[in-house]
Design a protein that fits this description.
By secondary structure, the chain is mainly alpha-helical. It is about 75% helix and about 0% strand. It is built from 18 helices and no strands.
């Protein structure tokens, strides 16, 4: 009896092992297999003619950036990545930027053999780093694959849980280099955390909060603060105004207009930009004032009329208050969305 039991357990264990191996093979996608095979048996380095390479030129985009577009030959791609990335190839974030561009280009044009093409290019462009770069490209591929598989989960969890899952995966795939690769994102996360603490501090006035926020930007970016602000000024302004909505809501229209102007000025907007934004704020205030009138009168019409007459009066009211936007509001309401019954985000709308 014991022998029979052992045989059954042995067979059962064997079946489980086979099942596990089958699942593993099925889960092991073709790209992963190509990476494994090429890591064990790399391609032969392709010979290139230096005279041909010297005569190659490229399209450039804004600020002279080299563009990886169209049908590029092996030699063209080789020269492009050298010119664009060789000077800073020692930095992990530069390596990832190069690999992302290369992988996107090759996947679109060589969907079956892009991994082989990638290894060939890396061996020819950066022979001393090719093995490390090829491994990094696999890590990048597996990370992207994992993120795609977790898309639904990441969309359901809180922002804090999402951040934790992302960093956990990044450290698993890239180790300590993840801090350098996503250095900019990590800085922004630190700024967001400080802004959350600043916004909750009831002992600080609105002006004090703005000063503390500006200080957090200077701590994060140092000498690059002004350059960073010039590139992302509106996003930093919006982040701050979003965080101080309760203070802005408590102000009367004149005080609120002055506060918004002070916030934008404090984050580096020039006088001309400040004037444009002030004019836009005034338009938005008028629109929301009309929205309050519309909501009240709409309720009165809905309570007093029905059918075609109700619809006619609502059409007239929308045209009176919103002009050309009347039809847009009508379509929104037909879909169940009532714009002016939603909370307003001051500074954005």
């Amino acid at each position: 009896m014991k022998r029979t039991t052992l045989i059954i357990l042995s067979v059962g264990g064997g079946l489980l092992l086979i099942l596990f191996l089958a699942i593993y093979v099925l889960a092991d996608d073709p790209v992963t297999r190509q990476y494994r095979e090429l890591s064990e048996r790399p391609v032969v380095v392709r010979e290139v003619d230096d005279d041909v390479l010297a005569g190659i030129s490229f399209l450039t985009g804004e600020e002279g950036a080299l563009l990886m577009q169209g049908e590029l030959s092996f030699e063209q791609i080789l020269v492009l990545v050298r010119q664009k990335y060789a000077a800073r190839i020692g930095f992990a974030r530069v390596q990832v930027a190069m690999l992302e561009e290369l992988m996107q280009h090759l996947q679109a044009r060589y969907p079956e053999t892009w991994v082989t093409m990638l290894q060939e290019i890396l061996l020819a462009a950066f022979p001393d780093r090719a093995t490390q770069l090829f491994q990094l490209s696999e890590n990048l591929y597996q990370y992207s694959r994992e993120m795609e598989g977790r898309r639904d989960l990441l969309g359901r969890v809180s922002q804090e849980e999402r951040r934790e899952l992302l960093w956990q995966s990044r450290y698993e795939h890239f180790g300590p280099a993840a801090d350098e690769i996503w250095e900019s994102e990590k800085r922004l996360e630190g700024i967001q955390s400080r802004l959350a603490a600043i916004s909750k501090n009831e002992d600080l006035s609105l002006q004090d909060k703005l000063g503390a926020y500006r200080g957090s930007l200077e701590d994060a970016f140092g000498e690059q603060t002004e350059v960073t602000l010039s590139n992302r000024r509106l996003s930093f302004v919006n982040a701050f105004t979003d965080a101080v909505q309760s203070e802005l809501e408590a102000l009367n229209p004149e005080e609120r207009a002055a506060a918004l102007r002070e916030i934008r000025s404090g984050l580096g907007m020039d006088a001309a930009a400040l004037d444009r934004w002030s004019a836009l704020d005034a338009e938005r205030d008028q629109r929301w004032s009309n929205g309050e009138i519309y909501t009240s009168r709409r309720q009165e019409i809905a309570a007093s009329y029905a059918g075609a007459e109700q619809e006619q009066r609502l059409d007239e009211l929308r045209r009176e208050l919103f002009g050309d936007e009347a039809e847009i509001l009508k379509r929104e309401e037909a879909s169940g969305y009532f714009r002016y019954e939603q909370p307003r985000t001051i500074g954005r709308e």
